[in-house]
Amino acid sequence: MLEKMLSFSRHHKMALLMLLDALLLPLALWSAVVLRLGGNWDPKLNAWLWIFAVPPLWVLPIFIKLGLYRAVLKFLDDRIVYTVFVAVSLSVLVLMAVILMAGISAFPRTSIIIFWMFAMAYIGGSRFLLRGVVRRLDARDAPRVPVVIYGAGRAGLQLMAALQEGREYRPLAFVDDNEQLWRRTFRGLSVHAPASLPQLLADTEAKAILLAMPSVSRGRHRQILEQLENLHVPIKRLPGMADLVSGEVRVEELREVEIEDVLGRDQVPPRAALLAANLRQRTVMVTGAGGSIGSELCRQIVQHQPLRIVLFELTEFALYAIDQELARLAPQIERVPVLGSVTDHARLLSVMRAFAVETVYHAAAYKHVPMVEHNPVAGIINNAFGTDTCAQAAEDAGVATFVLISTDKAVRPTNVMGATKRLAELSLQARHAAASRTRFVMVRFGNVLGSSGSVVPLFKQQIAAGGPVTLTHPDITRYFMTIPEAAQLVIQAGAMGEGGDVFVLDMGEPVRIIDLARRMIHLSGLEVRDEAHPHGDIAIRCTGLRPGEKLYEELLIGDGVLATDHPRILRAQEYHLPAAELAQHMAALREACAALDAARAFSLLQQVVHEFNAAPHSADWVLCRNQTA
Q1: pTM to 2 decimals?
Q2: Active site residue 409
Q3: How confident is the model at residue 498, as a pLDDT?
Q4: Which of 201, 240, 432, 490 is the most buried (most CB within 10 A)?
């Protein structure tokens, strides 16, 4: 029957609550009088029995005015006590006035105080009793996932309160590093030490751990996740404090643990002066504006009040997507979306001149190693000649600063993609050596998390599909950096360059990809299936190194590296070719590419990039596919 009542309309529920109060108020007054008289009835009161029936006549209007019936039972909080206190106190004052004006001398005066206490207990208690019943019925209809909250600070308590009101999770206990909080209880949830987590999970049968520590550093997050990894329980985290304060997310909006939390390091705050140096009130052009790095560069550029931003992109949909996103992010910034190829000098020159471009960030490139390995001529044309063509257009248009987004794969490359990026660097270095008026800067870094084609989204898809998780070699290692941090450092390095500089970003410690795969599986609450655990959930399969793939990446060709004013940016001291020699190589390479002579182009690429140590299978593949390049 109670469930049927809960299905009533809002107005019907309000009417039922009024009826309940209309019965409880006379009961409270009768109880107060009987208690005051010691359980005996005074016959003198028989003539004034009507006084027990009339309190609802003035009390209910007071309750309505104070909004007592507008509160939703399921979401009642402690503030309802204050509302009931005020409403009952006002009703007692009216009752005293009625008794005095009616001259009811037989009515015991102290029973009015007792009535106040009974009314508070009956009205307030009935609300909390009904709230508990409604929540219990709601929890029964929508079984919630039992969870343990890691972090009993302010964020953890807010998360607990939010989850207790919701329908998805049922918090059972807290875990916290602070010893002073151990064995304390908050709303019936006790706080435990992290060492007791395995037993706690077994006792509570919790299905997930919720991290409620939005203000701790990335380094501390990483340490906690490493401790939790072997528990094989799904882990979700509360958003960062900046997102909570800005209102972009609410405290109950939990997110999957991102790989940045596992690999992440504490980010060095960007320097505002460096960020704004090449951007503020300037016309900035980004080539490859729709790509992973290019689009993040655009997002960060528009935050620093450029005069306008020119979005240069070959792919129509990618250009449309970033243009629409920037329209939402910074509608006040003038945007110029331009379709075109970085190999088209006339197109580039006309755009740069028409919009008086002052700074260019050259992010357009083919970057997927196996794809470029199978399409070497296309990779050389786009990555090497595209950069050279774009740099020539920048010089012809009088662009002040040209920043090339390079890669760690350009260091002693073993694949065509890395060799083409190193050739692009050599091209810019030669232009600087020839006293160009344009300041050329190169920024070299490793893999970025979440970029198209990176292992992290691939591993997520494979884990979601039940595996196996595939990697090329058990000993392969890579450097990782988040896309926002990489873009910020690129912009800052571009402002620091004097011309011809090769900057190297501090990528932190290299990560074994197989360890990354294991950690992602464990943090999804699953077990790796291997010889030690034949009944595990997800297998890891090694497929063999791909053509041109390295076991490990490097960031420097030589040993010469200089520190800069920025702790995450280093300046490399590396060789460059004389302009005349490089021009001869480029001319020969251009002829080979025009003739689609992949074998000759491959050989010439090895000659111009001295440290290009191509894997044997790469050269064999190019030779046998010469005519289809």
Answers
A1: 0.65
A2: yes
A3: 83
A4: 490
